[in-house]
Amino acid sequence: GLRSLYERIIERIYRRGLGRVPTILVGEPASRTRVRDVMETKPGSYACVGEMDLSDEGVDLAALRTMLDRTGARNVILSGAEKLGDAAFLNLLRSMRLRKVRVEVVPGAVTLMGSAPVLSENMGLPLLEVGYPRLDNTQRALKRLLDVAGSALGLIVLSPLLLGVAALIKLTSKGPVFFKQKRVGADEKVFLCYKFRSMYTDAEARQAELEAKNEADGAIFKMQNDPRVTPTGRFIRRWSIDELPQLINVLKGEMSLVGPRPLPIRDFEKMTARHKMRLAAIPGCSGYWQISGRSNLSFEDMIRLDLYYIENWSLGLDIKIILKTVHAVVRHEGAY
């Protein structure tokens, strides 16, 4: 029938080398040979343009990146992935995600912790596409529409409050109204995050002397009675007003109304490959962490909630979190 005719036409196109995706095979020699044999005997949409060994230490990411640049490959097929530990596997996914390279594995005993596997078949060979959860074009458009409408409306409606807080900060302490800090956003891109200044101007310089008093675990720094916070700052933090200038970041597309919290560069550098998976999403002003206890939660709880959000995103979920954020702010849950 028509399906059979279509498949014959596609196979002829592939045999002529047209429309095939340049692909690098990574794995032990024997397993790579099996995949290459399938690619040669039953041409599919992939063309092997390079091969790389999988050692006991894992994948040589520097060499792989060089090969990707040299060949122009946009796809990696990994065989024998069960040899990789969780950290090595996630480091590979992270490195390829930043280059927008697709990763597929030949099914085996590989752990898929933190990845979003999709079963596909090519050349008659079953493959699992693995990577970080991503929104499709329609989902991205819906989320962006909510962000633009929500942030613009928020800035207009809250403008009297914003102006009043700005004046209060200027009158009660020396220094600028806004605190601007470089933070790590989606795909590890650094951006300038805006907040109302709630601390004295030497706050960042004094953090090193306060590290021993850090009350948070993991990669973040928190103190309930931080001596660097000004009296006005303590008030606006209690009501989460200090976060409102981030609506500017949302309008610029650097942040979303809902998403994982963007962390400072110093905190990002302490994170493991698994922790950095949360950077697959645009950072948000609020999120599951904020409505589930905020600073009262552990760092690992924050990561778990962020990953759950990324894997289960929906427009309804964003709206639900926004509504619950209002409730959490009124109750001062975990705000200090």
Automatic annotation (TrEMBL):
GO molecular function per UniProt: undecaprenyl-phosphate galactose phosphotransferase activity
Residue ranges of the TM segments: 152-173
Domain Bacterial sugar transferase: 143-330
Cellular compartments annotated: Membrane
Record-listed E.C. numbers: 2.7.8.6
Keywords per UniProt: Membrane, Transferase, Transmembrane, Transmembrane helix
Main location as per UniProt: membrane
Any one of the GO CC terms: membrane
InterPro entries according to UniProt: Bact_transf (IPR003362), EPS_sugar_tfrase (IPR017475)
Record PANTHER family: COLANIC BIOSYNTHESIS UDP-GLUCOSE LIPID CARRIER TRANSFERASE, SLL5057 PROTEIN
Family the entry assigns: Belongs to the bacterial sugar transferase family.
Protein name (database record): Undecaprenyl-phosphate galactosephosphotransferase
Species: uncultured Rubrobacteraceae bacterium
